[in-house]
Amino acid sequence: MNARDTVALFKLIAKEIEDNKTYLTELDTAIGDADHGINLSRGFGAVLPKLEGEFETVGEVFKTTAMTLISTVGGASGPLYGTFFLKMAGALGKAEIDLSDFVGALEIGIEGVKARGKAQKGEKTMLDVLIPVLDSLKNAATTGIPAKDAFDEALQAAKDGCEYTKTIIATKGRASYLGDRSLGHIDPGCMSSQLMVKAAAAFLGGKA
Ligand code: ADP
Ligand code: MG
């Protein structure tokens, strides 16, 4: 995957977020403040024109996306996804990357989200999708299966992660104010992460 592919991938992610803006906001209406879809739509809407620039490395595309999300998204998810992509950018300073490069960067990105949000797995945040996705891709990278198959498996892990958040109580972010009333609901940030994995799977599968 080169910088041009990365631009195409982020365009697809932006479309996936836009197509699901209302759904993401509905999820955030149940356990938050009804703005997750609006926040990310604004952020990725601002990313799109920035993707028209020239990029030599994959990391430059991640960095541009990160900086734009940080400066345009007001909610918690802006700095968190911004940190995530910015940390990944630092590990992707190459013209061309493979699955194991991506897995290494993803691990660093997730460490950034954990540090920024002071959260762990099981707290009903985006980490409940991102961490299972990392585990799935890590495993796939060792078996040497094609990246598109790896992302199909990771998408299933993301879906399972979203479903899992219905069964747990939020202990971080706005949803934590609800205590056990957060039970039974999917975490909005998990769903946006799942949509990003869906876009990646579609992109790699040539289905986009
Ligand atoms: P806000 O909560 O400020 O309204 P958003 O609605 O855009 O921001 O994003 C909410 C999502 O952010 C949550 O669903 C959750 O996945 C994620 N989130 C919130 N706090 C944290 C945290 N401390 N660590 C990781 N993710 C978090
Ligand atoms: Mg919100």
Heterogens: adenosine-5'-diphosphate, magnesium ion
Q: What structural class do the secondary elements suggest?
A: mainly alpha
Annotated CATH architecture: Alpha Horseshoe
Order of helices and strands: HHHHHHHHH
Task: Kindly report the CATH topology.
Answer: Serine Threonine Protein Phosphatase 5, Tetratricopeptide repeat
Runs in which pLDDT lies below 50 for 5 or more consecutive residues are none
List how many beta strands DSSP finds. 0
CATH class reads Mainly Alpha
Distance between the termini: 15 Å
Q: Helix count?
A: 9
Rounded to an integer in angstroms, the radius of gyration calculated over CA atoms is 16 Å
Shape: globular
**Helix content class:** 55-70%
- Major sheet summary line: none
Residue share in β-strands: under 5%
* Mean pLDDT figure: 96
Question: What is the assigned CATH homologous superfamily?
Answer: DhaL domain
Number of domains: 1
Keywords summarizing the entry:
binds adenosine-5'-diphosphate, 9 helices, 69% helix, single chain, binds magnesium ion, Serine Threonine Protein Phosphatase 5, Tetratricopeptide repeat, mainly alpha, 208 residues
Characterization of this structure:
- With 208 residues, the chain is mainly α.
- The protein has one domain: DhaL domain (Serine Threonine Protein Phosphatase 5, Tetratricopeptide repeat, Alpha Horseshoe), CATH 1.25.40.
- The chain has nine helices and no strands.
- It has helices at 3-19, 21-31, 36-50, 58-72, 77-90, 99-117, 127-143, 147-165, 188-204.
- The longest helix has 19 residues, at 99-117.
- Magnesium ion binds at residues 28, 32-33, 35-36, 75, 174.
